[in-house]
Amino acid sequence: MNSKISRMVKTLRDWSENVNPARDMPKGLFGHTAIVECNGAKINSSDLDIEFKIPFDDDTEANEAEIKIYNLSKTTISAFILDKKLTVTAGYGNDTGVIFSGFVSKVTTKYSGVDKITAINAIDSMELKERKIDSISYSKGTKASYILRDLIKKINLPLAVFETRKDHAYKDSVTVDGELMSNIKKYAEVCGVSAYILKSKIYVRYIKSGDNINFTVCEETGLINSPEEFTEEEKTEEEEDDKKKNKEKVMITGYKFKMLLQHRLTTAAIIKLRSREINGVYRVRKGSHSFNGTDFITEAEVI
């Protein structure tokens, strides 16, 4: 019990050092909660120590959550079976939400002093493990959007959004083989969009499109320090004909920031970002939720 009290004290101290203490603390700061559920087992951070690092982004690579739970019983450990559904819910007080939904990919248990630590790895979809597809032929005149949709069906996950910006009809027949996710990325680029997995669903849409969550990131809601600006080049495939390809270059600008863990922030969330220097609307591109026993943090990159 004392260890949990000391963790909360440290969290509050770190928060007060990074924000203006003259303002009210973000609502729900007290009573941070993390819950891991898998195969009938439900572990709450109020009962056992939990740590995690959960990334999110808008590419075709599998996102892997890393979770550590201390001093689980043998019975509870046995619930974490490969390929079983796993979710992580986190937040403050009654304001919580799912920050990860995926499948167990690896489980190990070892001792560190008197603590028994169970490390669990989980990914968005077991279908995203490296896999090759047999040769698939498409007749001449087939559009890139048709090929993309056909390849996505092979992931065997629900398709939440399918919105393309452009298309290309191939003059000759097309053969697709090799890595499934690499091909999905290729044809998504031809269509001028990104393809990604979020909470066990597939999204295909433009990098600047998203879902307005009606949330403002600011010091009052837990923003820590000033956002840092960044600029980088984004490239997409541009098919002029069946033999010539070049890259369409788009300059992406945005900000990186850190805040107290906010379950609402995830890939493609449209938010307002407000600080002393910034006041605008942005789309979340990637980031992570993490908890190391003391710091309950969300880091994000927005454009």
Task: Explain this structure.
The radius of gyration is 22 Å and the shape is flat. A hairpin with a 4-residue loop joins strand 17 and strand 18 (296-302). The protein is 14% helix and 50% strand. By secondary structure, the chain is mainly β. It contains 4 helices and 18 strands. Strands 1, 2, 3, 4, 5, 6, 7, 13, 14, 15, 16, 17 and 18 form a 13-stranded mixed β-sheet that branches. Mean pLDDT is 85; it is low at 1-12 and 18-25. The longest helix is centred in the first third of the chain and has 17 residues, at 2-18.
In short:
By secondary structure, the protein is mainly beta. The chain has 4 helices and 18 strands.
SSE map:
Blueprint: H1 2-18, E1 32-38, E2 41-44, E3 50-56, E4 64-70, H2 74-77, E5 85-92, E6 95-112, E7 115-123, E8 132-138, H3 144-153, E9 159-162, E10 174-179, H4 180-190, E11 194-198, E12 201-205, E13 211-217, E14 223-239, E15 245-260, E16 269-274, E17 279-291, E18 296-302
Parallel strand pairs: 9-12, 13-16
Antiparallel strand pairs: 1-2, 1-5, 3-4, 3-17, 4-7, 5-6, 6-7, 8-10, 11-12, 14-15, 15-18, 16-17, 17-18
User: Level of helix content?
Assistant: 10-25%
Number of helices: 4
Average pLDDT over all residues: 85
Order of helices and strands: HEEEEHEEEEHEEHEEEEEEEE
Q: Spans with pLDDT under 50 lasting ≥5 residues?
A: 1-12, 18-25
Task: State the shape.
Answer: flat
Radius of gyration: 22 Å
Largest sheet: 13 strands, mixed
Q: How many beta-strand segments?
A: 18
